[in-house]
Design goal:
Elements: H1 2-49, E1 64-65, H2 73-83, E2 90-99, E3 102-110, E4 114-124, E5 127-137, H3 162-178, E6 195-196, H4 205-217, E7 222-233, E8 236-245, E9 248-259, E10 262-272
Pfam family, one: SnoaL_2
Keywords: Signal
Organism: Mucilaginibacter angelicae
Length: about 290
Amino acid sequence: MTRLKNNLLIISALLACNYCTAQQTATTKKVGIMNQKQETTDLLKSIETGAAGPVAVINPDKYKQHNQAVADGLAGFGALLQALPKGSAKVNTVRVFQDGDYVFTQTDYNFFGPKIGFDIFRFEEGKIVEHWDNLQEKPAQPNPSGHTMTDGPATVTDPGKKEANKALVKSFVEDILVNGRMDRLAGYFDGDNYIQHNPQIPDKLSGLGKALADMARQGITMKYNTIHKVLGEGNFVLVVSEGDLAGKHSAFYDLFRVENGKIAEHWDVIETILPQNESKNSNGKFNF
């Protein structure tokens, strides 16, 4: 009996030890993610403040740049900052998310003029090694429903539904924006309930349909050709796509908020893609 009790005590101790180790690993992982989000936010803010410390999160030996207006490497990033008129930059990061090695943000900038931007950073061994972004001029007025390009909820919910939400949103972009299967449109929404932050489009699914019809009547075409990346955290999903808007080769960054398995809200940024011979680096706008 004594031997049995001793064995049970040993087993209990081992189980407790394994549980503690698992909890410590989970806590360490969570802290690491929070740190990378904060490091990314601090790096962006340093564009405004000029602080040198946050730049240390960039790996100077591997940093690859996909912004076509910026030269490759850490030197390109530094040259961009030097080109900014002194005291002109303003940076307010409104949303920050993480999906694995990728941290992605939505930011209200004054960056060579007022702009709204999405930035994506890839981490490797705790350092940033790659950057993509999309920037659009910030409109002076809200959209027809009174929304700006950045207002609305920013808190992540439903962390366990990330993959399901990514699959839903990717399917929506493929069906509707790439393949034009408009007969499937209503299935992605909760009736007419839909909040829109695009500068030209009002709320509700009916508002989206009317705006697309108005664009068609004006001869303004919008065509998505390729989905390059889908990133998500909880109820938020970012889709990076390539296509054409009004005859211009364009990059589309679309952020969606999902609620109860339906698309509930949308933010976006659209940027014209430069010809490769006008780009300051050879990495391409996408190439994830």
